């Protein structure tokens, strides 16, 4: 991730996490950030040359055939800890809060809704938003399973962070 992109992540400052969130998310953990966000190696450049060399693409608008989705980086006010939790359906998989954008819903509204639904956090502030959509393709077995569950034919997801 470029330095400019590292300043564009959605960072939310929680005031409190209700005790009921433990029922929604299994074993919540706050991880200490061990490096600066600008030290990541992925890029948010939107040139076609960069997209073809990258395992995911970045663009101004989500492409057709991809499920629109938001991702949330929930951080403490000092930006030294971020929230991740294990999935209930895949306990060995840890992820940040994220989820689909409903028809007609704006990404920021979806981020606030998903954060509330997945963590119970209601007191947070959006301090930044990534300027581009980031897409990735589902692995074939995951694509088949998710499309069967959702009744869709998505290639992957286009995420707004």
Automatic annotation (TrEMBL):
Limits of the Nudix hydrolase domain: 65-161
Transmembrane region(s): none
InterPro entries cross-referenced by the UniProt entry: Nudix_hydrolase, NUDIX_hydrolase-like_dom_sf, NUDIX_hydrolase_CS, NUDIX_hydrolase_dom
GO molecular function: pyrophosphatase activity
Keyword tags: Hydrolase
Gene3D superfamilies in UniProt: Nucleoside Triphosphate Pyrophosphohydrolase (3.90.79.10)
Pfam families the record matches: NUDIX (PF00293)
Record's protein name: Nudix hydrolase domain-containing protein
Lineage: Eukaryota, Viridiplantae, Streptophyta, Embryophyta, Tracheophyta
